[in-house]
Amino acid sequence: MSAAVELIDALGGSGNIRDIEPCALRIRVEVNDQAAVEEAALRLDCVLAVVRSGNVVQIVAGLASDAIADEMGRILDGDAPQ
After folding, report:
1. Closest Cα to residue 29, out of 8, 49, 48, 43?
2. Interval 30-79: pLDDT, tens
3. pLDDT score recorded for residue 80
């Protein structure tokens, strides 16, 4: 399973994600319900840190952030295999 798929699942699934945006070395994700986010499951080997505030979860994944965010976006849009 790819990091993108695991992160989507840990964020409460596609129905809990409003928006995904790569921001420099992190992935900024707006969610509907923070309670649905499994923070422990977000801590993959590629994830350096997780910051939560309001409806936003920021996943710090370093240089891999852009590629992971792009793959997450394609999965959520139905354009990539899971």
Report:
1. 8
2. 999 999 999 999 999 999 999 999 999 999 999 999 999 999 999 999 87
3. 61
Which residues are CB-contacts of 1 (< 8 A; sequence separation ≥ 6)? none
Catalytic residues: 23
Residue 32 DSSP code: S
For 18, 25, 37, 57, 79, the CA distances from 32, given in Å and listed in that order, are 6, 23, 10, 11, 22
Tell me what pLDDT residue 24 has.
85
Return phi, psi of residue 12, to 5°. 95, 10
Q: How far apart (Å, rounded) are the C-alpha atoms in residues 16 and 61?
A: 21
| Total-model pTM | 0.86
What CA–CA distance (Å, rounded) separates 22 from 63?
11
State how far the Cα of 10 lies from the Cα of 24, in Å rounded to an integer.
22
